[in-house]
Predict the 3D structure of the following.
Amino acid sequence: MSDPASLKYADTHEWVRIEESGELTIGITDHAQDLLGDLVFADLPEVGQRFSAQEECMLLESVKAASDIYMPVSGEITAINSALEDEPEIINEDAFGDGWLFKIQPDNRNDINAMLSAEAYEASLDD
């Protein structure tokens, strides 16, 4: 499991972990998966697709609702968590670990500096 305090966050409830390779791993927060409820379907993006920051890039469906997932920074999808195609509930069980969604090669890694810290994200939930 990742240390949620060391990650960066989008106000749309995505988290970002910087990998040693320079890739970014993207997932949704525990708060987001809790709001969605039991996940039943993950419509993942395709490797090689490019998205701009804040662009819809995938969909998660739960027994309660469907929710768009947004690209936190501009870049290209380099990997997807294909285990989620058969077991989307992994996100409910381990949102910050095995429930990661996809990896990207960012256009500009410095873009994550504008994202929220764990403290700022937590504070935003109280608004």
In short: The chain has a mean pLDDT of 94. The CA atoms of residues 25 and 96 lie 10 Å apart. Helices lie at 30-36, 83-86, 90-93, 118-125.
